[in-house]
Amino acid sequence: MGDALMRTAILLFLVLAWESPVSAAGFDFKGLALDSLVMPDQVVESLKVACEQAGKPCDEFWQKFHNDNAVKCGAGHQGKQVCNGRTSIAGEKATANVVIGSGGRLERVWLTISNYAYESVLAELTKKYGKPSAVKRYGVQNSFGAVFIQVDTVWNGVDGQKLSVSKYAGNTEESTVYFSSRADRAVQSSKKETSGDL
After folding, report:
1. How confident is the model at residue 25 (pLDDT cuts 50, 70, 90)?
2. How far is the C-alpha of 48 from the C-alpha of 85, rounded, in Å?
3. Which of 69, 97, 135, 155 would disulfide-bridge 163, Cβ 3.0–4.6 Å?
4. What is the distance of C-alpha 110 from the center of its chain?
5. For position 12, what pLDDT does the model report?
6. How far apart are CA 169 and CA 152, in angstroms?
7. Are strands 106-114 and 81-89 parallel, antiparallel or unpaired?
8. Residue 85: exposed, middle, or buried by beta-carbon count in 10 A (0-12, 13-18, 19+)?
9. Secondary structure (3-state) at 106
10. Which of 149, 147, 185 is nearest to 168 (CA)?
11. 65, 53 in Cβ contact below 8 A?
């Protein structure tokens, strides 16, 4: 009886140990995991992309332009670190806005991509994270009266983490990819509530 109980306990331990990495996994972008401790230098290094001109290394002019637009970090509001600049996702060019909270934890990775890259980026994210938790479609209208179908795709993760992909980002030329923590969405929500005060 003691051996059977011991075998059962070991088997249960192995099953839980095997499952926990999958169930505890959150969202990450280029090795930067939401809610994990990160340093600004890590963000800069992880989001670095090579400078290329038509598949060849950049000349001096384009290298300077590339370096000027690379991801850089600086002090943000309430002790946060904010990193902005050019990077890539799924082989497509992107502009990044990354927020590290005052406690050093990654709160947000917001990427803006060309709308032409939307389908390929969405396909790669679906390969990586599986079937989305929700897909919402609704009409949006531009200033000329043309109507487009907005598509918001959302994956819900652990501890309130979310990954949201929007086909249109306030215009028809750009799309967004938003890796968010619960903390970042709370800040965004409070900004919306106070903006109506003006």
Report:
1. low
2. 9
3. 155
4. 5
5. 34
6. 10
7. unpaired
8. buried
9. strand
10. 149
11. no
Token couple for 19: 């499952």
- Tell me the pLDDT tens digit for each residue of 84-120: 999 999 999 999 999 999 999 999 999 999 999 999 9
d(CA 116, CA 120) in angstroms, rounded, equals 8
CA–CA separation, 81 and 155 (whole Å): 26
Question: What is the phi/psi pair of residue 58, to 5°?
Answer: -70, 150
Q: Is residue 193 very low, low, confident or very high in pLDDT (cuts 50, 70, 90)?
A: low
Tell me: the pLDDT tens digits for 27-68? 999 999 999 999 999 999 999 998 887 778 888 888 888 889
> What are the C-alpha distances in Å from 183 to residues 95, 125, 167, 176?
22, 23, 24, 19
Place of tokens 């109506």: 196
Reading the block at residue 42, the tokens are: 């890590």
